Amino acid sequence: MKYLIIVDVQNDFVDGALGTAEAQEMLPRLLEKVRQFDGTLLVTKDTHGADYLETQEGRKLPVPHCIRGTDGWQLAPALRAIPAVREAKVYEKPCFGSTALAADLAAQDREGGVDSVELVGLCTDICVVSNALLLKAAMPEVLVSVDARCCAGVTPQAHEAALTVMESCQISVER
Questions:
Q1: Vertex 151: Cα angle to 142 and 172 (nearest 5)
Q2: Where are the extended beta strands (E) located within 52-93?
Q3: pTM here?
Q4: Residues paired with 152 in a beta bridge
Q5: Residue 122 pairs with which residues in a beta bridge?
Q6: First vs last C-alpha separation in the chain
Q7: CA dist 38 to 32, 88, 99, 123, Å?
Q8: Residues 105-155: pLDDT tens digits?
Q9: What is the Cα–Cα distance from 153 to 35, expressed in whole angstroms?
Q10: Within 10 Å of residue 104's Cβ, how many Cβ atoms?
């Protein structure tokens, strides 16, 4: 089975508290990829509580974002219907990578059910790279790839640096 993981394409990362022009610019390409993908879709959502600024992440990045229930936490409007329409499981995650996602796919792989995993989304240099590395570690023989055209980083330089790291770790990067 082929999987496409849509990482954190939430309002706060597109045009909200931590949004970037690059995230807005890549969104149409990501939507087209999702429309054309013939396989299983999975979605992650960065999810924080009202105590975000009291957490380690909040102290290091003091910009409240993706607070559960807020508009910034919601998927970008063009993606909001995807989980229901495509029966995509949504993984809420309180940190950069989803260990639950990696565990679920590794269990599926042990049953022989994972042919490939592709990641798209935001932010390349934080959550995309974290999830890609977790998945590669959990399933070293599965093709794990990232479509760089359907990702955006905090900055263009950070995006490129993350792609280089992933390539170094035998994650296939489509540019």
A1: 30
A2: 89-93
A3: 0.98
A4: 122
A5: 152
A6: 23
A7: 12, 13, 25, 24
A8: 999 999 998 999 999 999 999 999 999 999 999 999 999 999 999 999 999
A9: 23
A10: 15
What is the identity of the amino acid at 94? P
Question: Which amino acid type is present at position 67?
Answer: I
- Do the beta carbons of residue 171 and residue 146 sit within 8 Å? yes
**Residue 51 tokens, joined:** 């105590």
What tokens appear for 132 in the block? 């890609």
β-partners of residue 56 are none
Question: Six-digit token pair at 82?
Answer: 């995807």
Q: Quick check: 17 and 82 in contact, CB under 8 A?
A: no
Structure tokens at 118: 């592709």
Tokens of 23: 């995230």
Rounded distance between C-alpha atoms, residue 84 and residue 82, angstroms: 6
- Predicted confidence (pLDDT) per residue in 16-73, tens digit: 999 999 999 999 999 999 999 999 999 999 999 999 999 999 999 999 999 999 999 9
